[in-house]
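Before the break, one more example. Copy the sequence into your notebook; we will annotate it together after we see the structure.
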Amino acid sequence: KVLALLASSSDEEGVTQPSGFIALLKDVIVGIILGVMTISTLIFLDHRDVVHFQSAHNFRNAAFQLLNDPETIANVEESSDLKFM
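Here is what the structure looks like once it is written out:
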C-alpha cells in the first residue's frame, strides 16, 4: 500500500496530500498495535505452556530481572514520586 501511494500520479491521492498522509499514519498505527497484540498473545500462551518459545522465556526472565534490580526500582520510584513496598 505504501509503494502504491508513493507511485501514484499527481492527479491521484498521494502521500503529500493530507488524506494520503492520514491513511499512511493509520496503517502504521494499526500495524504497530497488531504487532504488540500478537507478541503479547504469544508470550501469554508461552507462559501457560500452550506453546513453547525460548525467546519468550528469555524476554520474561529479562523483564523479571530488570524489575527486581534495585537501581531500576529507585529510578521508577523517583520518576513517579511513589515508594514501593
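The mean pLDDT is 81. Residues 18-47 form the longest helix (30 residues). Try to locate both features in your own notes.
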